[in-house]
Design a protein that fits this description.
5 helices, alpha/beta, five-stranded mixed β-sheet
Amino acid sequence: AAGPSAAVKGPLAVGCGWKIYRSFCIDLAAAKERLLVLSETKARIFNSSLGSKIQYSFEDEEQQQQQNKSYRYQEPVALILHASGGGFDQGMAYGKALLPKHRLLCISRAGYLQSSADACPRIEHQCSDIVELLDYLGVREVIVVGMSVAGVLAL
């Protein structure tokens, strides 16, 4: 039997749902804005010979040295490959926590953020693109960290 309390639950649930959804949308917009600013200030685009566009961020040693004159990065460079739902920004966040003394090179894998989404993102193609980026940057030796699905690329 539906009493007066049952009549209140429906509108109350809808009202709470709307409030949660609105809060989510505000948080999502703020996160997109932060990512856009981060993208514009820290990320670069590399165009590979295979036609891929790779978004990456490579920590600037000069900037780090200005903050702490005696600081030197350990070698080799840490190449961070993000998990699903991320991009170079996720790689930077995890990389700084995992390998704080290494210079980080973080890429947005194929189809993430501003990296191009290949019609057929073959592992060999993505690996060739990464090697070409490393050559372009003059990086000869790396520690490769592949998170989650990116572990396949790391191998």
